[in-house]
User: Which sequence fits this backbone?
């Protein structure tokens, strides 16, 4: 991408290394994403369904691109979507805020910060799921 060297590094690039503090453990499931959406192949959806997952918590880069596309695809597939506002970033604050604002109307409107989510993650997701069932 012109002007943004290493903006989206390939898996062989050192910029794609995962910080040791959040590196996957030996029993963690790793799904490699090859497009804007994590759902661009059936692996993610099949894995989530096989585990009985019905809610996804969105973090990542860039809010207005990959995160937004994955969130919309998750919503289309019936998953509850919760965005972690300070767990996402974009090229600028305006793009970040605009994407979160747009997602409120498409993906259910669940936008929280990491402190709020960390306080009681299961209770939060269950409360959102219950409110959508009404």
Assistant:
């Amino acid at each position: 991408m012109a002007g943004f060297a290493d903006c989206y590094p390939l898996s062989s690039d050192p910029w794609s290394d995962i910080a040791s503090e959040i590196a996957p453990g030996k029993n963690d499931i790793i799904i490699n994403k090859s497009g804007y959406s994590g759902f661009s192949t059936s692996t993610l959806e099949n894995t989530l369904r096989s585990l009985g997952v019905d809610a996804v918590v969105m973090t990542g880069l860039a809010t207005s691109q990959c995160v937004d596309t994955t969130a919309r695809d998750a919503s289309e597939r019936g998953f509850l979507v919760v965005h972690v506002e300070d767990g996402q970033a974009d090229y600028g604050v305006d793009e970040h805020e605009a994407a979160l604002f747009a997602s409120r109307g498409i993906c259910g409107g669940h936008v929280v910060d990491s402190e709020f989510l960390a306080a009681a993650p299961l209770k939060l997701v269950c409360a959102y799921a219950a409110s959508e069932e009404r």
